[in-house]
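Predict the 3D structure for this chain.
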Amino acid sequence: MSLSPVLYGNVCQGLTAALHDHGVLVVTFTAPERMNALDQSMKRDLIELVTRVQMDDAVRVLVFTGEGRAFCAGDHMGGYHEGEPASVAKIGGGHSTPIGTAQALRVYSQALNLAVRNLDKLTIAAINGPAIQTGLSLALCCDFRIGSTAARLGSATLRFALLPDEGGHALLVQHLGLAQALDFVLRKRIVDAETALRLGLLNEVVTPDALLPAAMALAAELAEGPQVAMRMLKRSLYNAAESTFSQALDDIAVRTAVTDHHPDARDGGASFREKRAPKFNAWLEGE
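Done. Predicted structure below.
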């Protein structure tokens, strides 16, 4: 990766974003004093950042990680307006009334997870420590999850008589199946990295020192692949998880009508015949 990554946009206190070689954008949660718990301003800036990433051809892969000993230990309880610049008007509402709770969930917590899940670019969560509640849901919205041996994953909202209201319940059903999801949330489980790997919540477990290098190596691999086809396939896979078989067939047929006629596919076929490595993504590199 680049020795001098480029800072990417203006984000609030508690976040940094840096663009590395291969179009890999690394977003780091930088509030270790509260185990990188997210507040309102961080969620708002993350939603805006992910929207920018969706439209920016310079970014191919998005990596999330945390500074210090946690990935993200949930919401910053009582701190939803901390970190707001003095020039930015505080957004009212919130959890003081029932309708305020519903609105805050839809506008911030759920909107953040939707933004990450709906991103066409590929995403990786490099989970360096506890990923709890909001942190777990954000990680589960990513396409790949690499955990260090120090990672801990859980919802555990019932410890406070609260619900996984940002969408974690649905994500756990998709990843674990209904029976395992019931066991996971109703028994308030927080599991270690090896257990998370066995359950399928992690793709890989590495030592803490190897975590970011492993995530960046995976990001570079994904960034060199045919971006149009990969993004189309990613969306078809997520759609298939929530569709009938017939709907999934229709969806991928329409996407194939695009990818089969893309320059990447033409060079892919030519490279096979010519026994050479394909030259993908010329459209991104100005060739």
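The radius of gyration is 20 Å.
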